[in-house]
């Protein structure tokens, strides 16, 4: 439950002005430290992935194989969360470095980057938690709020969510295809076909790399290709489960709010800021934990300032919390386990039609 104070027009304008000023102050201080940081992240991704793949070549011998899985999984998590996601938001466009250009970056995941830039950067960040506008609210298969109209297949949503978590990289890619609109006749097959071709091409590249090239490379050197194949699959599973958990904790905790489409009528920048604050949830933890989440543990700050380097969110969070307190707004932050528990309760509770 949230207990937020209703803001007068004057207060709302002042609230928005404070957040605008905070953003401008941060932009003015971007520089060498931020560039050095993201280059170190890129180096860490390369080192973890290379180290993990080399260790997997030693076969099933437990210490090296397990360490290889963990290192490769860590590299994939860092690439997905702290490197790819943040770069694609344009957080480092100011560097004028093609490797960190938001519109050019292609990440190590099944879905094409352009799909994500549209469904996430544009749709989700524009219409955050607006029912019928933000497809991330349940991703079409999960009822998480009583305001969502119940459908019979929600009865089994704990199963759907489990499958979605294990296959999360595929779920977010398929989301862009809008197969639901194709089924309802709102999109034609001719409109969907080019998207399917792009998805198939990216999926083929990813599958070939992880499940053909590296296992066959091991076989070519007389090593255990099956150990490499299973190791790659487990590394991808670790990345999928972690990404799913962090994203759901950032959006669907007990105190996260959803909004009717009418909230967009005449919405000002200040209103948009307020909606981001009300619809987001933060996670508490140490520096390494924040890096592994891509700093989406600071989901409030990410929704408020998606184009600012995520490494700045921890410092911004101190000021945002203070602004929220001054204007009588809930700053939704909690321990990882506690926040995830509320997400699981939502999934279980709202599977039933009578749950409101």
TrEMBL record:
Segments traversing the membrane:
60-78, 212-235
Query: Record's InterPro entries?
Result: FA_desaturase_dom, Fatty_acid_desaturase
Any Pfam family? FA_desaturase
Q: Which residues form the signal peptide?
A: none
Alphabetized, the UniProt keywords read: Membrane, Transmembrane, Transmembrane helix
The Fatty acid desaturase domain covers 63-333
What protein name is recorded for this chain?
A: Fatty acid desaturase
């Amino acid at each position: 439950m949230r207990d937020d104070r209703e803001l007068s027009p004057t207060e709302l304008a002042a609230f928005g002005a404070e957040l605008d000023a905070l953003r401008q102050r941060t932009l003015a201080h971007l520089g060498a430290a931020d560039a050095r940081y993201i280059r170190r992240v890129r180096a860490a991704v390369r080192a973890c992935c290379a180290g993990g793949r080399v260790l997997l070549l030693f076969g099933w011998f437990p210490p090296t194989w397990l360490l290889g899985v963990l290192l490769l999984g860590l590299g994939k998590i860092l690439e997905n969360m702290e490197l790819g996601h943040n770069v694609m938001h344009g957080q480092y466009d100011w560097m004028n470095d093609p490797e960190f250009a938001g519109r050019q970056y292609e990440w190590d995941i099944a879905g094409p980057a352009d799909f994500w830039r549209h469904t996430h950067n544009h749709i989700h960040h524009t219409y955050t938690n607006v029912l019928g506008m933000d497809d991330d609210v349940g991703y079409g298969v999960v009822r998480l709020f009583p305001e969502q109209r119940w459908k019979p297949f929600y009865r089994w949503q704990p199963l759907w969510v489990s499958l979605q978590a294990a296959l999360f990289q595929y779920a977010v890619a398929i989301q862009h295809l809008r197969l639901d609109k194709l089924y309802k006749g709102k999109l034609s097959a001719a409109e969907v076909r080019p998207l399917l071709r792009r998805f198939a091409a990216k999926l083929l590249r990813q599958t070939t790399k992880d499940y053909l090239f590296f296992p066959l490379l091991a076989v070519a050197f007389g090593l255990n290709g099956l150990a490499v194949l299973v190791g790659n699959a487990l590394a991808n599973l670790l990345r999928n489960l972690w990404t799913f958990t962090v994203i759901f904790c950032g959006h669907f905790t007990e105190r996260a709010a959803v909004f009717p489409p009418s909230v967009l009528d005449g919405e000002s920048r200040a209103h948009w800021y307020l909606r981001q604050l009300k619809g987001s949830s933060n996670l508490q933890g140490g520096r390494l934990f924040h890096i592994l989440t891509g700093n989406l543990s600071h989901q409030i700050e990410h929704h408020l300032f998606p184009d600012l380097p995520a490494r700045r969110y921890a410092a911004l969070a101190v000021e945002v919390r203070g602004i929220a307190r001054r204007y009588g707004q809930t700053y939704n932050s909690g321990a990882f386990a506690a926040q995830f528990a509320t997400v699981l309760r939502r999934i279980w509770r709202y599977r039933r039609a009578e749950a409101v």
